[in-house]
User: What shape does this take?
Amino acid sequence: MGNKYYAVKVGRNPGIYSTWAECQEQVIGYKGAIYKKFSTNEEALAFINPQAQGTVLFACDDGQAKRTVPCAYNPEDLKDNEIIAYVDGSFDLDSKTYSYGVVIISNEGKETYKGREDNKELAVMRNVAGEIKGAMVAMDIAIKKGKDTLYIHYDYTGIENWAKGNWKTNKEGTKAYKEYYDKIKDQLKVNFIKVKAHSGVQYNEEADQLAKEAMLEDKE
Assistant: This one.
């Protein structure tokens, strides 16, 4: 059976839940509760934000387990200093290479970036090496575009935890990532937003596809 997404539009804590039991806690006994079950995260987000049709939808983790709070942005409504990114990585076991995909959204519109690398010291981290590279590319793009606020969406928790020092950096890749973040964090405020991998979040899926395309293109 596929994943189910329980969207609570009106309830104790509006959001998207992964189980019926969690949904019930928010709606049972709540006067005027509005909720519905969906088969994709995107449909659930659209249900909670019907006015967001035609905008960019983001699934933002608010820190509560198994709950996703929807965020809707229209690229044209973003401030000049703001930029949004989705990053993901991929790994090829045969060639021991990794790749990244990045989706960038600002008030200038949408841009995509992808690439493949074969640094053997970093390749031991497999697809995580690609996601780290994607995060660094996103931060670099934000700075080059003159932005000072980045909302970066990722699906591997190390992207945030290594940058913030919550996890030990005991590999060359994580050390380099932490050093890079420490250098740019004063000029770029990075807001880390966790999204669930392969859950139907449009731009997260696109970043994943870009990473896979980069791997295939460089093989041809």
